[in-house]
């Protein structure tokens, strides 16, 4: 929450880059886990899948994400962000999903975020390193996806959910 209460949701102006706004390379993850862990291959998991959602203080549900630091690779930064914001370690990254761009909430940086699809079988996450953050698991059943603070993240989740509905697997 801000000093004035919950922040209003992002609007169309967050998706228009103004002159002079510097880019910020970032990474994010659509991290899934099977509802049932009785299969080694994780294919065709009958119970469906859950997606990791990070709730920032406020509360503002979103996918785990963050900027690259120093000379980090995108995947190194993603694993660091997953640990810091969600308490997840050992996530298997399957492939890159999309690169999405927008202004940060304060409109001071142009976020260029590469999103990756990953899976985990970790049942209990460690406490996030970021103060006030918490991890929630939401089902991706029947095309139902959680509403996230950033609309482009919700759209990306819908794409992943459609893939799961078609194939039964994120692979």
Provide structural commentary:
- The protein has helices spanning 74-86, 151-167; strands at 23-34, 49-56, 60-62, 65-67, 92-103, 110-119, 134-139.
- Helix content is 18%, strand content 32%.
- Strands 1, 2, 3, 4, 5, 6 and 7 form a seven-stranded mixed β-sheet that branches.
- The longest helix has 17 residues, at 151-167.
- It has 171 residues and is of the alpha+beta class.
- The relative contact order is 0.25.
- The protein is built from two helices and seven strands, in the order E-E-E-E-H-E-E-E-H.
Question: What layout of secondary structure does this protein have?
Answer:
Blueprint: E1 23-34, E2 49-56, E3 60-62, E4 65-67, H1 74-86, E5 92-103, E6 110-119, E7 134-139, H2 151-167
Parallel strand pairs: 1-6
Antiparallel strand pairs: 1-2, 1-4, 2-3, 2-7, 5-6
**Approximately how much beta-strand content do the residues carry?**
25-35%
Distance between the termini: 37 Å
Gyration radius (Cα, Å) is: 16 Å
Shape: globular
What assembly state would you assign to the polypeptide chains in this entry? Answer: single chain
Q: Helix content range of the residues, please?
A: 10-25%
Q: How would a textbook summarize the main sheet?
A: 7 strands, mixed
N-to-C order of helices and strands: EEEEHEEEH
* Count of extended strands: 7
Q: What number is the mean pLDDT?
A: 87
Number of helices: 2
Low-confidence stretches: 39-44
Q: What would you call the structural class?
A: alpha+beta
